[in-house]
Amino acid sequence: MTFNVIPAIDLRGGRVVRLKQGDYAQQTTYAADPRELAQRYADAGARWLHLVDLDGARSGNLENLAVIQAIAGGGMQIQAGGGVRGEDDVQRLFDAGVHRVVLGSVAIRDPELVAGWLAKHGAERLTIALDTRHIDGCWTLPSAGWTESETRTLDELAPWYAARGAHHLLCTDIERDGMLAGFNLDLYRHLADSVPLLAVQASGGVRSLDDIRAAREAGAQGVILGRALLEGRFTVEEALIC
Q1: Predicted confidence (pLDDT) per residue in 136-181, tens digit
Q2: Domains of the chain (ranges, CATH numbers)
Q3: Active-site residues: which are they?
């Protein structure tokens, strides 16, 4: 099965940014223009690009849609989310050229609605994003850009979606996101054992090529690469080779 190396661009106010542990008050803004950065990743050989509308994730509106649409015309396959709350949002992203829509807060709050979208659009057009924070022995699922608490857990929803035909699962350990601390390999081993039918994308903390290799060995079928690429710890070409 193909292992996907997926560069990520987080958007806030139309600019390339990174947050630490999902904290909007801990933002680093990068000089790169998002469209130029996306083109550099495409020229380096990346087949997929992960786009996050951070404004939308918190507000519930697609606030960076124009930038996403501009990037989607650049040749890579686009996976994008942040702010998707209803069917109209899903369709607007498809119309903008997005290949797979990422569903986060709505996937946690309204699983039945998302199950209907899976049936309508097919498992290859949607990625379920269950970003998680370990609290008191439980993998919790914050929503709204990781700013609000929810009652459902990762171990409840991941198997639920697998049973309803989902194929792509993006899972970020929030405590490691933007921290360059390495992937939480125990989390991805757990998902590989508990939901083997899901193609898991590992996200949060990658700092080296060894982390990419380790995620693959832990059972992940893709990695999301953000800050490590922006700060030059390795290149897209090196990540694809490893």
Answers
A1: 999 999 988 878 889 999 999 999 999 999 999 999 999 998 788 9
A2: 4-241 (3.20.20.70)
A3: 10, 131
